[in-house]
Amino acid sequence: MSMRENLFKVVRYIALFGVITAFVSCNSESKSDSTDKDKEMKAKVVQDVKKVMISLPSPVETSLLLKKAGATYNESLLNPTSNASKYNTDKQKALNLGVYGADLSYASIFEQDQTIMQYMNISKKLAIGLDLLAAIDQSIIDRLEANHDNRDSVIRIISETFMNSNSSLKDDNRPETAALILAGGWIEGLYLATSLVDKIEKKDLIERIVEQKMSLGELKQLLETYKSNKDISDMLEAVQPIIKAFESIEIQKSDKVEVVTNLETKQTELKSQQKIKITQKQYDELKSAVAKLRNSIIQ
Amino acid sequence: MKYCIMKKVWTIISIVAAFILFSTAGYGQCRTFAKSECRPALNPYVHDGIYNATELSEGESAELYKTFYSNQNYRIAICGDASLPRIKFTIMDADRNVLFTNADKNFARVWDFKMESSQQLIISIEVSPNDDKMTDTFARGCVAVLIGFNATE
Question: Which of A64, A234, B51, B145 could form a disulfide with A167 if both were Cys (CB 3.0 to 4.6 A apart)?
Fold first, then answer.
């Protein structure tokens, strides 16, 4: 059903509801159009219908966190651009647009000029395939070329393309496609991280990887929102082995978060402690589950 | 009685017409608003690229769930359409303990912070009801929640 058909359906219900309400109110309360009590009731009903938004970590942020934790650059881990011609369905295109977006972010954090241009161009092709014409237009490619030696500008341009694509999709009433792109990017980010670490002794990187258990909860919540869509329910099924692998890995947290503001710098810090409990076997299972899903997405 | 019904019908027609107009026009406007009005508020932080925006009416609220990572500096920017009254935002931990509210900071629209350990936070936004208004209509407009991080290593 198209967006416009949905809209008219909603309008019909509103009109019907409105007409019934009008007749009822005319018969029973013709002298009082809107009392204070009505207003209070209206406000309460409105407040009870709370909208929920889920925000997954962006691939740029994930790549930056990995670099800070000691990750290195390994070009062979990226999804080859030659694979793009194999993606024919909207689901494949959306998931791999997310994958290429994560690869692009990883390359940008490590200042890989040539790879950045290749992955931006291939992302543009997939975006066009998904009717996201404005997400990555020629002006973005030109700006990227002109600013290739300025890492900060490159990161900002890439972030702008992510904003363009997910805002266009949400505004065009295609949140399922936006969710698939985000899912593809999240899985690729975790794949890159786990591929760079074999042993759990690399504590900083392991900590970053295990922390993805929290954002996995958000990914699951996001997919569940749109699970009436077949592609989304399939993806929800496909991430189950990763959910299972994370379940046995423990993150212990302090009970309370303390808010401390430095009066001189005006910097606020949210203070709390966390302890991660993971065995090599648990990590190996997680790494294998991630690689399996990622490889099924890019094939 | 007849006059009352006619009046109600015209009110309904007006509401439905306004609904159609704003439903179709609102989509692109919210995106443009988030980009032009809200993203600049993140400077000098880098926007994470995730678009979180929705249309809210007076008294309506929304919540955003996001994991924030340790040793990373963040800025949260909340922007509401000019037609809306002020926006209240509250930051809570996963157990819904309140950590910050802009109601204590003169309804500031940005908040900068850093995490000692990674946590999922809940950002609750609420369009304050306008108690001073003269009409029964509820203002409705776009509210964007954008998140920026410090990209320096």
Answer: B51
